[in-house]
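Dear U.,

For the methods section draft, I wanted the exact inputs and outputs in one place so we can describe them consistently. I've listed the two proteins in the order they'll appear in the manuscript figures. Please don't edit the C-alpha cell lines directly; just add comments below if something needs changing.

First protein:
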Amino acid sequence: MVLIDEKVIDVLHHGRAIVSKVELKEKLDNDVKDPNAVFIFKFITHFGGGKSTGFGLIYDSVENAKKYEPKYKLIRWVKAFCCVEYADCIEKAKASAAGLGKKEVKYARRYPYRFAPDQINLAANMVNEPE
C-alpha cells in the first residue's frame, strides 16, 4: 500500500495569522511512523480570516512519496523541511534555473553574438544532458 490517507484539513486560527505548514505537519505527524512522508498543500485562507482549508497526503514511506509525488512538490518539501538526505532534488532544480530554457538555447545558437559564450555552453549542456 502506498498512500495511507488523504485528508482535507480545516484549521481554525482566530486572532492570529495563518498557521505555518511546519506546525500543521507536526500535528499530523502523531499518526505516522515517518514524519517526512506527510505532504500538505493548497491552503486557502477564507475571507475574514480565522479559518484555512487545505489538503494533506500521508504516505507509508518516504521512498513511495518520492516515487509518486511530482518533482516540484519534492523540491518545495526539501526546502521547507531541510531534509538534507534528499538534497539531490534541489540540485537539479538549481541547475535548471541557472541556465537558459529550451527556446533561449535555440535562439542563442541562431544568434550567438547576442549571448556570452558561457551562457550558450551552459544552456546547451543542460538541454542535452540525459536524466
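Second protein (the one for the lower panel):
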Amino acid sequence: DHWVPSQVLKQTGPVSYKCELPGGHVVRCHRDQILNRSTPSIPSTPIKTFSPVISDESAVSPMVQDRVDKPNGVDVPSKLATPVRRTARV
C-alpha cells in the first residue's frame, strides 16, 4: 500500500496510462492504480481585494443607513409566525 506521486503522460488504452514517476522513470498503470490528487492552484495574476474603510459612523449617509436597517423596506420578524413542524413517526 505505497502510493508514489506521478504525472500521467498519456492514455495508452481504455483503462491504461503511461505515468512518469519523480525519478523520471516511466511506467504503465491501470486506471485502478491511479488516484486523483489536488494541487494548490496559483493564479497567474494576483487577486485584487477591496476593503472599504470608514473612519466614523457619521460618514455613512442616512439613506444607506436606512437600507441597512430595513432591507427593501420590509420588516424582518425576529421569530417565526408558525412553529416548526416535527414528524410524529417513531
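Candidate sentences for the figure legend, describing the second protein: Residues 1-35 form one domain. The mean pLDDT is 71.

Thanks,
Y.
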